[in-house]
Protein 1
Amino acid sequence: MEQTYVEVGVGPVSFAEVVAVSRDDAGVRLGVDALTAIDRARKVVDELAASPTPVYGVSTGFGALATRHIALEQRTQLQRSLVRSHAAGSGPEVEREVVRALMLLRLSTLATGHTGVRRQTAELLAALLTHGITPVVREHGSLGCSGDLAPLAHCALALMGEGEVRDRADNLVPAADALAAAGLEPVELAEKEGLALINGTDGMLGMLVLAITDLRRLLRTADIAAAMSVEAQLGTDRVFAAELQALRPHPGQAAAAANLVALLAESGVVASHRGTPESGTQCNRVQDAYSLRCSPQVHGAARDTVEHAATVADRELASAVDNPVVLPEEGRLESNGNFHGAPVGYVLDFLAIAAADVASISERRTDRFLDKARNHGLPPFLADDPGVDSGHMIAQYTQAAIVSELKRLAVPASVDSIPSSAMQEDHVSMGWSAARKLRRAVDGLTRVVAIEVLTAARALDLRSPLEPAPATGAVVRRLRDAGIAGPGPDRHLSPEIETAVSLVQSGAVLAAAESVIGELR
């Protein structure tokens, strides 16, 4: 298959471009405008490097060592030492998609023409992405201030032909060997380049963009799960009416409620217990439990949180994060604090709270299926022969364990700060840590929603001969087509849960519903 490319210019990359490079292995090219901007900024750095006046980042040490003026003959060593010493990560390898995202976002900042790197350095970073060479980045090491220093330093190390990388086939090889195999030459970093390569919020921002992408899909899938639960628990769809939602005009709530209405349209199960004035009958249940009735309010609040986070991410994508920054029009470098990760760290933490709460209400809806006192005529635990069979009893345990962990992950990282660099960096964001725990939270939410879909599908089958709505029925069929059998005696449940997780994660559950009613909001 021919490789697709993302062109990086002086403007921001989009969410779709981040996903294309990080997850779909798109190659990367620098636009003509970016190369022009890079050359212009480099000219400023070269002029300042030749000046006898010390300039931070060009002819001085770094951080608390910035008071030392570095002689011309030592500046190449200064850049090498900076990268080598800052590549101090520890722990498990960071996921390939995260590393590719942070590399792309660092390249995007380089392309703005405010960092002062040479074009060959930026082009080598683009080439690594194109050739599928992924530096090994360790999980621990970033405080989210002065950027994601350690993770980015591991990437800069690979540009120098040092350290370890994963090649396109995921083999662990020395960086020098991977570069040679791709026909690439390592770069000898010049003044300012080492600092420009490591001083950004790119790791936490990359994880934020990927999390928002996943959560937008997951929240629509959570609406599907909620609709299936409302339907199979003989709940009412009247509470989701647009005129009721308009009384509290949060956009996310309106979208979630509209999705539930569309998903439950033409449901034979809902129609079976809906009283009407014309028939002279009345449903004997006055109100559904909160976990059913308030699904749009909770899912909607999460949606609005995601969109707030997306606004922050868009602003960050449009930023040139480095210190010092080159101001080419004025021919100077200026120190600044734009590398501080607080804006990104806050929303990463906020999203972890939203993920935990959506998972919590999903687990509560699932639990109602299993209690014969609350499931309106279904067998205990949806078991085939209760007592002999346990049905989905322990699937709910799995949900509960994950939800409990999600609550712990919702504790914010960004409220913490440990001073570093001899008190020069005395307040840090911990944004990288917030991003790492959000990735775990998104995975946990995926699993909780998948178990609700799995359980609700079983319950809908048990409502037969009543027919589910066309949209929810399509989801049930998608599970069955994937090898998840309908109700029956107990069987090994873990593989079915993992299949359901895969269907939720891939978007297959969402696609099944949307194939019937069109795109959900």
Protein 2
Amino acid sequence: MPSHIRALSLSTLLLASVCSGTAGAAEIGAIDGKPVTLDLTNTAVVDYRFDNRNDDRRYPTRYVDDQFGEWIDRFNLQFFWWRLQLGVRVDTATYFITPSPGDAEFQRLFSSDEVVFGRPDLVRELNTRFLNTYYPAKLYVSYSQSGVEATVGDFYAQLGRGLVFSVRKLDELAIDTTVRGGKLTVNQAVGPLRLGGTFFGGQMNPLRIDEVSGRRLHGDGSPLFFGFPGRGSVTDLESVEAFADAQGNTVNVTQLGRPSYLEDTVVGGRVEAGTDLVQLAANGAMLLRKSYTREYLDCIERGDDELRSGNNLIQGRCANQYPEFTRNNASRRHDTIRNFGGSLNIPSIADHGDAYVEVVGQQLRDGHLDLTRTPAEDLSGYAVYASANARGGPLTLALEGKHYRRFFPLAANIDADPISGVGFGAPEFSLVNYSQPPTAEPIYIEPIGAPNVCITAGRARADYRFRPDSAVYAWLGRYVSWSELDPENETCDTSREKQTNAWDYGAGTDLEFEKGRSHARVWAGFRRTETEVPYSGFVGGEGELFYSETYVRYDIVKHLAGAFSLQFQGNHRRRFRPENFVRVWIEGENYTALQWAPNLVGIFGVEYTSQEGCEPGRTEGFCHYFNGGLQWKATNHDTLPEQIFDTVNLFVGQRRGGLRCVSGVCRFFPPLEGVRLELVSRF
């Protein structure tokens, strides 16, 4: 049965199941006198991406990030009975009108001095993109009673403030990582003393489908991930001269498939004790990586990596049997990582403040072998994070500080190298991490390099609330890093040549009017980062300036009449990064929305950038992007149409490419030009 027919049949079956049941997390019966409740949610996204004007013949990824359509569907079922809860989520991706390997192979590219016939690099790029995929993404069963909760299957987890371990969902960045295994949480009160513990273990389960790029992440295979998509081989249909036989006949070169993810295993836990006055906790997590390095090197030495059969050349036999790929940071170059530490929380200080401090140690062991069988050196580091708040009358003062030395995020064991992994890698998944150290930064700041590996920093913020519904605020941050200029500074060399110094400050208002129906949230800021000594490796010229940015952000709502309001939301930035760009550029966006509360919103957006290269060959001037959209939200769920059309989002137009950041986690989004329809149904 064709794949698109299978997807349609699946959706039809699910819709029939929904329509035959009772609406809205309803009781559908009883077992042993206890009610049974069923909750169904389905999110369907259908979009088509036209030419986004970023083609550059040097980068195959830019040729295949447009001119394709996709239907992404996530079906969630939750079943409740007694103390039990069962959850199932099925993810599907169906693609249409996509670039085909044949089109890529025979594409001809012309330039003033050469003609290129065929693009085998594009064929390899398509090997892991636009593959119809249907699999059970999340499964779990949980049991809960007073003071005890046990889960088998998929679950989220965070220890402390995320320094030791943290996996959660970030919809803005298309990240949704869970642990698939078991978790037990126990809490007990003994007089004024509260005791608790959380213990878990399993294998990490990142999403396998990236909606933005159409890339599929392939695991090595594990009994825990039954029904998950498998890897495939790739054949270059047009010969490469170096592989032609003695008579000059075409030789088809087949690269055997290999995974882009080797399943990581984690064990961890937390024990805590405290009263209303003070709370103590100990956290620990150990990450264990799967590795075939020795077997792979033995296979290469035996000469088993390729096999010639007639006019067919089969390569990559060693990587197929013993998957191996580039480890491009310290975290991925070690097969055992231990994070451990403790925290102290004082939730109330004389009813006018609170304080929190966490200290964590890290050990990176079992170094990955290089081609000479030399293991990466053991590394040890630590992190200290502290925050405090003081409140008196209308004034609130918040302090936040961090001191990290050789402290690395728990990066997923993913082949994120965009060059060596062509055909099998998954660079779009490089931001999947299993820890999230606090940044002490505004949530939208774009990190450069790896600043948090070796840094000492702090930020202070003051809020003055002159009315219950209105306030002004300002902040000042100071950040000294030795891994921003040099992300490879894994030993945390604190010499002046490695050091960058940043000031970040801003101020804003949070005002409400007309009994909360109108508001004005406006803030502006400036950030400047300099190297400790003049640096000569920048394309923008020698000097101390490493990065500068001035920005204004706003969210303004004006009530018009009745249920109608007008909203303006925007972000405008002036930026300079001489490391990569010759001149200053400006970028930003403004979105205007007419709201008919609570059901309908109409949106018009304008985005722009003057960054060099916003379109291939463009060195000056602006690139503009225009878009519009509609949002519908059902008021209640009394009828089946309201349940099916709970939330509808329609987007038509263009968006500029660039980084999007949430609390220090960033990913690059390519430019977009297309149509996107999202339908959320709740039953």
